[in-house]
Amino acid sequence: MDNAALVKQIEALQASVQSLETNHNESLDTIWMLLASLLVFFMHAGFSLLETGSVRFKNTQNILAKNLIVVTLGFIVWFFIGFPLALGSTDNPSSFAGSSRWAMSGFWENKSELRLWFFQGAFCATGATIVSGAMAERTQIKGFCIFTSIMTGIIYPIVVYWTWSGHGFLNFVENGTSVSIVGPAFVDFAGSGIVHMVGGVAALCGAIIVRPRMERFNQSTSESFDAYSVPFCVLGTFILWVGWYGFNPGSTGSMHDIATANTAGLVAVNTTLAPCAAGLLVFFLRAQVVQPKKLDVGGFCNGILAGLVSITGGCSTVEPWEAIIIGFLGGFVYQGASMLLKKLKVDDVVDAFPVHGACGAWGVIAVGLFGNPNRGIGGNGAFYGGDQLGTQLVGGIIIACWAAAFSCLIFVPLKLAGLLRLSDEFQIAGCDIKEHKIQSDNISDAKANLDITIESA
User: Fold this and answer.
1) N-to-C CA span, the chain
2) What DSSP string describes 216-246?
3) How many angstroms separate the CA atoms of 270 and 264, rounded?
4) Assigned domain for 299 exists
């Protein structure tokens, strides 16, 4: 065999090996992202159980319907409008919003975007789900549908573009380095601010504008507003925690090299430790320090979720011992915000703002405080002389103001149009009897529950 033929053979082998490696990497990344996406999607089962357990029995079908609406309507809106605004970058991108990939146009030229669409779509629906729990038991479905469409189509996607697209004003590339308009690029690995704070702030606006449930803060009423099913709340919390292992580790976006694998391992460890610290702290505080000064299992659940939200932003840039501190402080943030809402008589049924809004903001700030640059995992915390904190504060304020302003622009007109709050009659009887099909074997139980409710009122 002459040299020319040998060279051609070697080149062919090299091309074959390179093709095999490319196919292997693409397949591995797709498997990883589909698994993570399924876990994030499964979180909606957790939200459904948690919210069902937190409302009264007479409204269980109604809150479940809203959880189903969030996913079904949310993904349709994400297909047409949400993804293009969030990640539809062009050759000449703006710094405010995307403007391509409408209804998946162009995906056939780059099919790897299909897995990104699914993963980010599951994230998108989470923001609206947070709002449904806060406004439960007194919000009309048609008004909630309108809000869900705008939340998944405009509010959340544009925040994603500012941050995760790599082209927005809070995170863009300049001279080969990721920066923002105020310095270093905004860092929020899996969405403490981008997902949870946006949903939590919107939930607070909605809860204030729709006003409390009928008789919620009337001390003379005998009606109980306690959670309908603590077992549902606990099971929902565990499902959400499992789903978070898709939410956080899955945000690596790939899994074909050892560096990414190690990052995912670190993220999983931090996603375990932070909620443990937060949950135990809240459980202790409510047992020994603040009301009810008894073992509060519901509070324990929300403490765990508070820790998960708190670590979501910095889970890839901090060490495990730092994650414990972040979660521990997140427990205090949650408890303080929860007590403040009750003092201000803001009726947040599932404590959505304390868990997602307040702890989401803390998670954004924590990224600017913790994370040693010398560890080589992307940390740039102020405690180590880093300059990340300024960007985190400015970015967090901008995102929170955007979510609050746009949510109010939706909720206030809905309220004025009579499309937001349910009537007193609906609240007394319960949405399930007034609006939903009652299964035949549950009719007698529902009627008995209605009679008790009317007598109490």
Assistant:
1) 96
2) TT-TT-----S-S-HHHHHHHHHHHHHHHHH
3) 10
4) yes
Q: pTM for the whole thing? A: 0.92
**Residue 176 located in a structural domain:** yes
Q: How far apart are CA 143 and CA 154, in angstroms?
A: 16
Domain contains 102: no
pLDDT of the residue at 457:
44
Q: Please check whether residue 335 lies inside any domain of the structure.
A: yes
pLDDT by residue (tens digit) across 22-73?
888 999 999 999 999 999 999 999 999 999 999 999 999 999 999 999 999 9
Q: Which amino acid is at 457?
A: A
Instruction: Determine the Cα–Cα distance for residues 21 and 25; give it in Å rounded to an integer.
Output: 6
Rounded mean pLDDT, 204-227: 87
Sign of CA dihedral 62, 64, 66, 68: negative
Q: CA angle, corner 306, sides to 50 and 75, nearest 5?
A: 55
Distance CA 228, CA 57 (A): 6
448 has a pLDDT exceeding 60? no
SS3 213: coil
**Partner residues linked to 421 by β-bridges:** 139
Per-residue DSSP letter, 94: -
Q: Which of 68-77, 100-109, 360-369 is least confident?
A: 100-109
Distance in angstroms (rounded) separating the CA atoms of residues 198 and 154? 12
* CATH number for the domain that contains residue 178: 1.10.3430.10
Distance CA 101, CA 305 (A): 34
CA distance 319 to 370: 9
Amino acid at 195: V
What local confidence, expressed as pLDDT, does residue 130 receive? 95
Q: Which amino acid, one-letter code, is at 31?
A: I
> Is the predicted pLDDT of residue 400 greater than 50, yes or no?
yes
Number of structural domains (the chain) is: 1
> pLDDT-derived band of residue 439, with 50, 70 and 90 as boundaries?
low
Structure tokens at 66: 């809203």
List strands edge to edge, sheet with 177-180: 167-168, 171-174, 177-180, 183-184
Cα dihedral 109, 114, 115, 116 sign: positive
Cα–Cα distance between 242 and 60 in angstroms, integer?
24
Range of the domain at 55: 39-90+112-215+246-422
Q: Are 282 and 334 in contact (CB under 8 A)?
A: yes
